Amino acid sequence: MIDFLDQLKKVGFDYATYSGISISPFELGEVIVKEKTLKEAEKKVTEIDKHFAQGFYNEAEKKQKKIAVWEECKENLQNQLVTNLEKKNTTSFYHIWDSGARASGESLTQIFAMRGNTTNYLGEVIETPITSSLWEGLSPFEFFISVYGAVKGMIDIALKTAEAGYLTRRLVEASQSLSIISLDCGTDNNILAEENDMPLAKRVYGRYLAQDISNKKEGVILTRNTLLLEKEVKIIQKNKISAVQVFSPLTCQLVEGICQKCYGLDLSKPGEAIALGTAVGIIAAQSLGEPGTQLTMRTFHSGGITGDEDITQGLPKVKQIFDNVKPDKQEKSILAKTSGEIISVEEKIIRQKDDKGQEIIYPLGKKKKVRVNQGDIVKKGERITSGKIDLEEYLEIMGRDICQNYIKEEVRKVYDNQGIDIDEKHIEIFARQMLSKVEIISGGDSEYLAGDMVNYQQLEKVNQALVVNKKKPASFKNIISSLKDLASYPDSFLAGISFQNTLKSLVNYSLYQPVDYLRGSKENLIAGQLIPVGSGFKERERFLKNK
């Protein structure tokens, strides 16, 4: 294998010098005609200014509408550019772009069409766009305003690279104890994988099927517990299946790890299921943490940035979700507590009528931008006003499963928007960890006391046993733990005291959890033991059997 890799490297370097590809913008000729598109955009901007002067828009709305116009203009030019470039498929420029080696649609648009909107020192979008392209050259004024975004980009790289590194550390600390410890946890719980902005084929690839798939002609075409690889995914596509039930780390019932069936394919070994002892928690942390630096560095590279007072993107968005940052009162979005019709939108309150005819009143704070109108039908959990969603409130309204899915989707979209491909299973592991603890409300006939913080999967097993014996199960409340909470208060006191606040952690653990069972990688490293992953997992299993 080593000889093969060495030879492969040599072949790559040899033929890289033979290709002789060099690019010249001149070989493309006239790739776009942008005067007409710019005139149409300028006409729309003039109309917006007229409406603003007549009092139809406030200052913020005028700015957002202008930004939207120029973003639409830039997108039209980009589509025109890509279409025309595909026709010139014999040029070196096309080959380099089409191969993905260099240049994206965004960077080509800035070179040949227009740079678009840029940001100021505060990160706010400047409503005056740069209509010139880099190939045409910028005017003195355009160069001046483009400097804002460039300076902010360099400052952010210097300041936020450390934040990305710290995020990686918290991700590893929060998940280091998770590994594949069983072939099958025996659960029937699963998730529904549907096609949205992400293709269904990509969403289900590498997962185990949780229910049979059938069609009218052939009957069952794929059976439960089938690992969905290229062949199986093509069958799903051929039969135009739009939704599939699959197993997921979110629904795994194991307390101390994850099973092979809920995890699925080993992403580093095509065609092979994940092996026992694989440290999937640390792999997930590395998969999300390493591109975190890229999120920071890519945020301000593009010239066009869509502006919205409610939108946080890039690394700050990932941190906001994983750290469970509670938004300020003014920034917090009001969520519909139930489904129903909006019966009135007043200056200080919004009234809603639910399905039973009961009226619900939502007080409006200052600077809240209302997203609904009288007569609208809103769904439970839908945002009524602009702002940031409070995860704890969303969990209370929508429940555990939907909240986990929201965490997964929001984090995935951040990476997708930056062109970073992350397998959903890695994000699901952290969504599972964030909701891994519950608070006991009533102990029922269990040994738990009100206020105890208990592992969700452990409590489910205890409650199932109580129900079988016709005893009263414990009731609980779902809670969200941030990465810092998970890293600071794990089950292992060795892992906990070595993260932060060592003295405080030592006191807490000595009082409430003085025994460490050395189940995770970190605590075993500290104790000088073989870590329970890979070959170390097999050694531990052999030792426990012979004990």
Q: How would you portray this structure in words?
A:
There is one protein chain. The protein has helices spanning 2-19, 35-53, 59-87, 92-99, 105-112, 140-175, 200-204, 230-238, 260-263, 280-298, 314-322, 391-398, 400-417, 424-434, 456-468, 483-488, 493-497, 502-512, 521-527, 535-546; strands at 180-182, 191-194, 213-215, 219-222, 243-246, 258-259, 340-345, 349-354, 359-363, 377-378, 437-442, 453-455, 475-478. It is α+β, with helices and mostly antiparallel strands and 547 residues long. The chain has 4 domains: 24-114, Orthogonal Bundle (Topoisomerase I, Chain A, domain 4); 180-278, Molybdopterin biosynthesis moea protein, domain 2, CATH 3.90.105.10; 314-410, OB fold (Dihydrolipoamide Acetyltransferase, E2P) (Beta Barrel), CATH 2.40.50.100; 432-546, DNA polymerase, domain 1 (Orthogonal Bundle), CATH 1.10.150.390. The strands form 5 sheets. Strands 9-8-7-10 form a 4-stranded antiparallel β-sheet, with no helix packed on it. The chain has a 3-stranded antiparallel β-sheet with strand order 12-11-13. A hairpin with a 3-residue loop joins strand 3 and strand 4. The radius of gyration is 27 Å and the shape is globular. Residues 297-309 have low confidence and may be disordered.
Brief summary:
The chain is 47% helix and 10% strand. The protein is built from 20 helices and 13 strands.
